[in-house]
């Protein structure tokens, strides 16, 4: 999907403990900058980075307030984080500026079905502070931020298969409780300007 090449610079928004960042740096020889709001998770990532000596760096930062020079990154990646961001259009405009010409963005996140949510789901979303939209709305927000070649797709089926395999391993016991009205999607886009 991302066609990572040695020497590229990747921004991971919501990096957590950096698992994906270490993987990308080691497997594809890219430099990864991971940002996250959690001091604890970022601390674990920094500890691991010292031991592994690969091209990763981590910072506690709020992605909607952080700034980078235009054209800093070849790839921006975010997994299961954007649902916490209220101003997605503003964030996507920042992503567009931070990408180099021809850069790519890959976001995987939860979404809700089009139309009003059930009372139960609406309460859950409100209680958690999520800002969920349908897959098409996510794709449109990226297009509105000037991204081209946007692919926004529902990956719920793939996600359920993964959760079911975890269930077989005893890792989780609830599979797809909200799958009838929420889902898991991904957006891939390229700045072709």
If you had to describe this structure to a student in words, what would you say it looks like?
By secondary structure, the protein is an alpha/beta fold. Helices cover 35% and strands 27% of the residues. It is built from six helices and seven strands, in the order βαβαββαβααβαβ. Strands 3-2-1-4-5-7-6 form a seven-stranded mixed β-sheet, with helices on both faces. 33% of the residues are buried. Keywords: Methyltransferase, Transferase. Pathway: Phospholipid metabolism; phosphatidylcholine biosynthesis; Lipid metabolism.
Task: Determine the number of helices (DSSP H or I, runs of at least 4 residues).
Answer: 6
Oligomeric organization of the protein chains: single chain
> What is the helix content?
25-40%
Strand elements, count = 7
Provide the structure class.
alpha/beta
Distance between the termini: 19 Å
Large-scale geometry: globular
Strand content: 25-35%
Unreliably modeled segments: 172-182
> Order of helices and strands, N to C?
EHEHEEHEHHEHE
Largest sheet: 7 strands, mixed
What order do the strands of the largest sheet run in, or round the barrel if closed?
3-2-1-4-5-7-6
Question: Roughly how many Å is the radius of gyration?
Answer: 17 Å
Mean pLDDT: 86
């Amino acid at each position: 999907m991302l066609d990572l090449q040695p020497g590229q610079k990747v921004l991971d928004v919501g990096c957590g403990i950096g698992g994906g960042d270490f993987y990308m740096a080691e497997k594809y020889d890219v430099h990864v900058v991971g940002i996250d709001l959690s001091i604890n998770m970022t601390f674990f990532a920094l500890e691991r980075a010292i031991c592994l000596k690969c091209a990763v760096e981590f910072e506690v930062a709020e992605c909607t307030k952080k700034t980078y020079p235009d054209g800093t990154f070849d790839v921006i990646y975010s997994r299961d984080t954007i649902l916490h961001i209220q101003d997605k259009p503003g964030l996507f405009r920042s992503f567009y500026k931070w990408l180099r010409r021809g850069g790519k963005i890959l976001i995987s996140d939860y979404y809700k079905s089009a139309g009003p949510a059930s009372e139960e789901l609406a309460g859950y979303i409100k209680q958690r502070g999520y800002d969920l939209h349908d897959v098409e709305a996510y794709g449109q927000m990226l297009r509105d931020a000037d991204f081209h070649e946007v692919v926004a797709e529902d990956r719920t089926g793939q996600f359920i298969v993964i959760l079911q395999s975890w269930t077989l391993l005893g890792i989780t016991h609830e599979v797809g409780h909200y799958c009838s009205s929420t889902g898991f999607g991904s957006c891939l886009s390229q700045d072709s300007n």
